[in-house]
Design brief:
The protein has 228 residues and is an alpha/beta fold. It is 43% helix and 22% strand. Strand 5 and strand 6 form a beta hairpin. The two termini are 50 Å apart.
Length: 228
């Protein structure tokens, strides 16, 4: 598919809405006018950073800026639409979908370029800060692949508990907290998410072989990172 394939469906749609349409005007793909209103539409065969940057520049001309892209698979489009919509709302850019069907095309405005009230999520900010404050070592490397192991504050606390248990042989959550482990030590031991701990008797835990093996690996990582 070529960008020019979007031309006719978009032109017909805008003209049906009463707009006068001009194309390729001072680098704008489409400029539509009606009753003093100016609308700019930038077209691409897919959504991209380049398209969004191009549309953002057009906001120097008018507030009514749209990006238009073809949609061949409505199912796939629906799957990605939520994240795309959120980004475009933040940029205050509208979205036009051109559906290419077997015998006809359909144009639909999915998002209007309305002013966006930027709101920050206190909950998400708190989660980020809690994660940062809960780390005592930074073992992650930015830009790592999605499959790479992420060392979270929870895992770091589990490592700290494992290290304390190795030193004392067996212990209660209370004693571990006195040794510097965090307040939710009891929950980490009880959930045993990584399978490192065994309950020896009521209120007493030990580090099992799996935990000892993991501890050796993580202590090496922590040592290497601290050296760097």
């Amino acid at each position: 598919m070529k960008e020019t394939d979007l031309h006719s469906p978009l032109k017909r749609f805008l003209e049906s809405q009463g707009y006068s349409v001009n194309c390729e005007v001072n680098n704008c793909d489409i400029v539509a006018r009606k009753d003093g209103e100016i609308v700019v539409v930038e077209m691409k065969t897919r959504l991209s950073v380049a398209l969004l940057a191009q549309a953002n520049l057009r906001k120097e001309i008018t507030d009514s800026v749209y990006v238009a892209v073809p949609v061949s698979s409505e199912k796939k489009w629906t799957r990605n639409y939520r994240s795309v919509r959120k980004l475009l709302r933040t940029l205050e850019i509208g979205l036009i979908a051109v559906y290419f069907m077997k015998k006809k095309t359909r144009v639909e405005i999915l998002l209007q370029p309305l002013p966006f009230a930027k709101r920050k999520s206190k909950k998400k900010l708190r989660a980020v800060l809690n994660e940062i404050h809960g780390r005592y070592a930074e073992l992650n490397v930015s830009g790592s692949s999605g499959s790479a192991e992420k060392i979270t504050s929870y895992r770091l606390e589990a490592i700290k508990i494992a290290s304390a248990l190795e030193k004392c042989g067996e212990s209660s959550p209370k004693k571990l907290r006195e040794m510097g482990c965090f307040e939710k030590t009891q929950r980490v031991l009880h959930n045993n998410f990584y399978g490192w701990f065994d309950r020896k008797s009521k209120g007493l835990y030990i580090l099992n072989d799996s935990g000892k093996k993991a501890l050796r690996r993580y202590e090496t990582l922590i040592s290497l990172r601290n050296e760097n």
